[in-house]
Amino acid sequence: MGLDIIVRGADFSSVAIDFVPPVTRGLRAWHLLGQTEALSLKNRWGAGAGDATKVGAPTFQASSPFFAGLKSDTNYLQTPVLETDSLTLVSVLANNDTLAASATRGMIAGWQQGGTGSGTGLYFANTSGLPQASLTLATFTSVSGTPTSVSPSLSLADAGVFHLVSAVVEAGVSARLNDHTTGQAASLALSNPRLLNVAGAGARIGATQRTDWGGATKQGFFAAFNVALTSAEIAQVVTSVRAAMAARGITV
Fold first, then answer.
1. Residue 6 falls within a domain, yes or no?
2. Do the domain assignments include residue 114?
3. Which residues have a Cβ under 8 Å from the Cβ of 213 and sit 6 or more positions away?
4. Confidence at residue 18, expressed as pLDDT on a 0 to 100 scale
5. Which residues pair with residue 225 across a beta bridge?
6. How confident is the model at residue 89, as a pLDDT?
7. How far is CA 197 from the centre of its chain?
8. Of the given ranges (104-113, 155-164, 210-219, 225-234), which has the lowest mean pLDDT?
């Protein structure tokens, strides 16, 4: 037998007791997307940046294991998580559009701001036709005062199925994109000063601050850290997220 200590006035619902993050270093957002709209908006790491809010009319399918109605620049979830020099994003994502033109190419998450050459974002673009697509991590640096994109990219054989992805931006080192579902990885050196989102806005789920793309995505999970996680830390997160998705019938 043990002794349970209950703290008067404590709000245990603010902590992810049903899906505890295995790594909390730098953790700012931990969202399990699905079940109900309220639970999708809730940041399940109580010590993080706060809950997300709904913008537009993202369609939530009752009892669905994922959020399907996310549409870039129109219907998305807004978080209060600010961009930092080094960061890590983890997402369970799938394409849900044709990718034929800007209006149907999906921004997945982040801070990227089109037209200014600033911020970091994940997005889908077309390659040789569906179900193939390219998944890109875009971030910006200043090269002699000129915004320059550093954008590692992966070619997905089937972007319509869910992939478990991590994106790491380590200032002064590299930008790294890993698809933990297929084992693919891409990395580019990041030696110049970073250009953070000029608007100082929080990360979006299902969009970024880029306004010229309007594609739809499906997402089952989102996490943001304000540090570059190590490979060992990412492995812990991947194991945890994969198990949570499997419990919902999503294999990643």
1. no
2. yes
3. 72, 73, 102, 103, 105, 106, 107, 114, 123
4. 62
5. 27, 88
6. 98
7. 16
8. 210-219
- Residue 9 domain flag: no
34/20 Cα distance (integer angstroms): 16
Looking from the CA of 36 toward its CB, the CA atoms found within 13 Å total 3
- Label residues 166-197 b or e (16+ Cβ within 10 Å = b): bbbbbbeebbbbbbbbbebebebebebebbbb
**Tell me, what's the pLDDT at 2?**
45
The residue type at 116: T
Overall domain count for the chain = 1
Mean residue pLDDT across the chain: 87
Name the burial class of residue 135, with classes exposed (0-12), middle (13-18) and buried (19+) by CB atoms within 10 angstroms of its CB. Answer: buried
Domain with residue 179: its CATH number is 2.60.120.200
CB 41 within 8 A of CB 51: yes
Which pTM was predicted? Answer: 0.90
Tell me what the mean pLDDT of segment 30-47 comes to. 89
Query: Comparing C-alpha atoms, which of 250, 225, 241, 221 is closest to residue 32?
Result: 221
